[in-house]
Amino acid sequence: MSDTKPRKLKINILRYDPHIKGDEPHIDTFEIEEAPGMTLFIVLNDIREHHDASLKFDFVCRAGICGSCGMLINGKPGLACSTLTSRLPDEINLAPLPFFELIGDLSIYNGKWMRGMNERLETWIHHKEKELRDIDRIEEPMDPDLAEEIYELDRCIECGCCIAGCGTIQMNENFVGAVGLNKIARYRLDPRDERTDADYYELIGDENGVFGCMTLLGCEDVCPKKLPLQSKIAYMRRQMVKTGLNNNIRKCNCLQHEEKMPEH
Amino acid sequence: MNIIYTDVLVVGGGLAGLRVATGVQERGHHTIVLTLVPPKRSHSAAAQGGMQASLGNCAMGWGDNEDIHFEDTVKGSDWGADQQVVRMFVNTAPKAIRQLTHYGVPWNRVRKGKHESIINAEKVVIEEKEEAHGLITARDFGGTKKWRTCYTSDGTGHSMLYAMDNKAHEDRVEIHERMEALSLIHHHGRCYGVVARNLMSGEIVAYIAKATTIATGGYGRIYEVSTNAIICQGTGQAIALESGIATLGNMEAVQFHPTAIVPVGILTTEGCRGDGGLLRDVDGYRFMPDYEPEKKELASRDVVSRRMIEHIRKGKGVPSRYGDHLWLDITILGRKHIEKNLREVKDICENFLGIDPAVDWIPVRPTQHYSMGGIRTKHTGESQTLKGLYACGEAACWDMHGFNRLGGNSVSETVVSGMLVAEYISDFCDSPQSHIGISTGAIEVFVEAEKEKIHRLLNNEGGEDAYVLRRAMEKIMMEKVGIFRNGKDLQDAVEQLEQLHIRSKNIGVFRSKSYAANPALVVAYRTQKMIKVALTVAYGALLRTESRGAHAREDYPMRDDINWLKRTITSWPDPEQTLPTVTYEPIDIMDMELPPGWRGYGKKNIIENPDSAIQQAKIDAIRNELLKKGADRFAIQKALMPYEHLLPERYRGRNERLYERFDEQKDDQ
Hints:
The complex is a heterodimer.
Chain A lengths: L7 E8 L10 E8 L6 H11 L19 E4 L2 E4 L11 E6 L5 E3 L2 E2 L1 H12 L22 H11 L6 H4 L3 H4 L5 H13 L7 H8 L13 H5 L6 H21 L1 H10 L4
Chain B lengths: L1 E10 L3 H12 L4 E5 L15 E2 L13 H11 L6 H21 L9 E7 L2 E7 L20 E2 L5 H15 L3 E4 L1 E9 L2 E9 L5 E11 L20 H8 L5 E2 L4 E8 L9 H4 L3 E3 L7 H4 L9 H16 L9 E4 L5 H7 L1 H11 L8 E10 L2 E3 L12 E3 L4 E2 L11 H22 L9 H20 L6 H15 L3 E2 L1 H18 L14 H25 L8 E2 L5 E2 L5 E6 L9 E6 L19 E2 L2 H19 L4 H8 L21 H7 L1
Parallel strand pairs in B: 1-2, 1-10, 2-7, 10-17, 16-18, 19-20, 21-24
Antiparallel strand pairs in B: 3-6, 4-5, 8-9, 9-10, 11-16, 11-22, 12-15, 13-14, 14-15, 22-23
Helix pairs in contact in B: 1-4, 1-11, 2-3, 3-11, 5-15, 9-10, 13-14, 13-15, 14-15, 16-17
């Protein structure tokens, strides 16, 4: 055990409670003595319990699994629960993830945004038969490598860090973000989903989808699950270019799709 | 007053709640799910290791079936489980997993040919069958005779929860996020919904439904250290208890998982040991074979946890500033395996311990993990005493785990119970009995009561600090109602918790006064509820003078099948009483398909009931006679303990396996 005195951490938190009339965004600073193995989860709960009981933030699993606690940590999106203070300087600036609706202080309503994105991209397996006809029978086999590949993309925890780190969405709020494009890549890979590239083109083949990405790729830098967002966006873009060209050739097909297109 | 009407209200958006919601919606009943957090953030996501279902696809699972899964589960429960419920469960689990495959869970698959694996610290070569290639594979877990735990890497719960939530999106299930149920609305012995609080705006809303389902998970957070997510605070059990009518079952049955990391208590999956990981002591010595020669690291969780503490008490723990711990060694599995199949474990080790588990041993200690107890229900999921109230998943006690749950049986239970309970609820909603017969005046009484409580909390100057009471409760539970229990400590615990309960009536929120989003207010009212739940656990543990499953009394080390083969039933009929009311529900050996015996692991320490031998002889006679007649396992099972009539009709079918093909069976018949 080392004898060095524990650090005094200066925690600056961007505060604002939209439910309190007249409240203005401001910074509150708290001083915390660092402890071994301390994470921002421990820091924030300590502040709430001993300094300011009104401080709002979100944690659920506190193990880096559930995606609740995305926030800006010294300007960079990340999960607070799995951030050790020992990896940060003496002064730590915390702010809510930008772009999402604010509940208060560090607490954001990103569940609402994620649900909207999932509904819009229809992120579920599309079968001809919605329910399995005979659940007593042996399941359909799947190539073991493919199953593992699908899980690789299924590991997204919808924390919203990629959205907060996205330059495109700052300029176009209808952009589906890396989280959305990754999901389409996941379902496209899955043979159980009967959608074709033409179907996916309808969902992401425009400036709000894969062609809107300005390829700044902050998403990949900040993804806590280290998902291959860069290569998946590039791959989906190539596939959608091909599909777009084919669509133009098969005009009647195109007309059919136009009838189904949602209003913009 | 804001009143929202629906057919079925589901409180809790984890696996169990979502599976109920999609099930009843499919049957044509409108559903609203209330959740504290977005459903995909529920604690179900943290289930790493897997889901038990006797598919028998992989070589080490070959020959598995419902009978073996049944036997493992009942032994795991230390004969506390309701054996008919276990039968319902094991028959439905293969269907549930196949359905989840349809919903999008990728599952790891069997790869034909030879592969290396680690069993009992040695490399072995296993050969998978050609015809099983691509089917769902399984890993080994504690307390099971076959490799039965199906998995998606070590993100099984995550992939299941995402598939279920996506299915809920597809089915247009209405989800009301950040809505917390504060109390049940009931009238003349019928439950009609809940009073809920919007955690963002503070609005109080009445949700009125034909059927109300509680699927809020366990109550692990009454302990100071728990593997549970911080929202697993037992508030679902608490609102049932506070109704004064609904009852809770076996609340003292609390599981400690052998391998949570020290000090923060985050879980490393049982898959670590299932895949071949070992437990080592301060000398690096592998000690489990000395205690459990047969199952070693893979005895049931209650047994492994106790053996670890026994070993630490012998001075073999590894000292640390956070107390003694032991080592979990998965280095022998190799980096490739760890990075593919145990990646969450690797991330957790890196992020929270700063170690590389492919090189370093992991500091672990048994930690509170699972609540076998919960809202006592019939096999249909309906409360035994409050009509129209249902519960399922970890929140319930229907009771398939008895006094100890097997690893992999919990996520499996969430979806299986969700499937079944959705059918029973739908049947109820289809019947005229389900009509809503409560006036808005009666609803208002419940709403006003909750508003009044909140008003009192926010305006009680000089009241008690909820955090102080909460921390005191957590410490009592940790120190006196833990893995090993004794009468003196439990008596202390009950008395101290009773005092905390009395003090908790005078909590004041004095640092944060907002009626809208206000974490201090949330801590205040949840603490009042949690202390009551803690009392049911401690009091049940004090009164149960035997050791069964996870309930281990040092002063009563024997499992007592003469006096204690019964379920603890707890209620709180009068809000003014300061201790819960405890009664017991007998479990009849003469109804059992598998009479009490030795589990095959753990200490042989049983006060036997003479009925066990009588019932066993009866069963042996029936079995022998039927075998002589050439009866198959299904006919024998049916003769011993019929249960199929309890299942919804659509889930009564047999399960196909590679070695039990439907076509072949038909040829045979």
